[in-house]
Design a protein that fits this description.
The chain has 241 residues and is of the alpha/beta class. The chain has helices at 4-10, 24-33, 45-61, 76-89, 102-111, 131-136, 143-156, 169-176, 203-208, 218-221, 226-237; strands at residues 15-18, 40-44, 66-72, 93-97, 119-123, 161-163, 181-184, 213-216. Strands 1-2-3-4-5-6-7-8 form an eight-stranded parallel beta barrel, surrounded by five helices. Helix 4 (76-89) runs parallel beside helix 5 and helix 7 runs parallel beside helix 8. It binds cytidine-5'-monophosphate (C5P).
Length: 241
């Protein structure tokens, strides 16, 4: 793995703010306080289902890089169409479930221009699932093993990277290579409330251990001053405090 300095310097804007809001007004009020030069944003299923593509277009017109976190999982033709539609919308990153299998992953990859602007990321095992949950659906391996299997399959199908926990980054970079993009949620600046996250890492720890992008929601969205909080997070990552 590259040394810490190289990892930190690789991506200038590693923080993706999760816009986990249920209505346009609250989402827009937060976005007004964010600077697209400091962070990227993530739009998930709830916000997208409520306020749709127009909101995504609005974010893009404000120069935000948008991660459309809709985790597509369907037959190859349908996923290919959805991924192509996301790229047409102009999103920076879109994701699919790796458990959709090789044909689905390859169809998703083919639906995007190879050197285009939209990154294609896969979800491996949902962090809400443990060993018992996997056994119940007839997957008799540990979540860690399954994450590795699905990450390798994704890389093999030309997917740009995976969403994973910061604890998995070192082994995934080792197995697949430093160019494979690792996007990690479960990030909490030291001293912040954990909310419902159980195993967390600080932004600096996560970057040091090999995360390329950090998905951070409430520590920023609930902050009195979200921009100040983002600056603090970036300073921590860059070792300036
Ligand atoms: O507020 P918080 O920082 O906990 O938000 C984390 C974001 O990352 C949420 O949008 C959540 O859905 C997402 N996420 C996660 N854990 C995963 C995958 C996604 O927390 N394994």
């Amino acid at each position: 793995m590259a040394n810490d300095t190289q990892v930190v310097s690789r991506i200038e804007k590693p923080v993706i703010v999760a816009l986990d809001f249920s209505d346009a007004r609250a989402a827009s009020a937060l976005v007004e306080k964010l600077d697209p030069a400091l962070c990227r944003v993530k739009v998930g299923k709830e916000l997208f289902t409520r306020i749709g593509p127009d909101f995504v277009r609005e974010l893009i017109s404000q120069k935000f890089d948008v991660f459309l976190d809709l985790k597509y999982h369907d037959i190859p033709n349908t996923v290919a169409g959805a991924v192509a539609a996301a790229a047409e919308l102009g999103v920076w990153m879109v994701n699919v479930h790796a458990s959709g299998g090789r044909a689905m992953l390859e169809a998703a990859r083919k639906a995007l221009p190879q050197n285009g602007d939209t990154l294609l990321i896969a979800v491996t095992v949902l962090t809400s699932m443990g060993e018992e949950d996997l056994r119940e659906i007839n997957i008799p391996v540990s979540p860690d093993e399954q994450v590795k299997t699905l990450a390798r399959l994704s890389a093999d199908c030309g997917i740009d990277g995976v969403v994973c926990s910061a604890r998995e980054t070192a082994v995934l970079h080792q197995e697949i290579g430093d160019d494979f993009i690792l996007v990690t949620p479960g990030i909490r600046p030291a001293g912040d409330s954990l909310d419902d996250q159980k195993r967390v890492m600080t932004p600096a720890e996560a970057i040091k251990s090999g995360s390329n992008y950090l998905v951070i929601g409430r520590p920023v969205t609930q902050a009195q001053d979200p921009t100040a909080k983002l600056r603090m997070i970036m300073d921590e990552i860059n070792g300036n405090n």
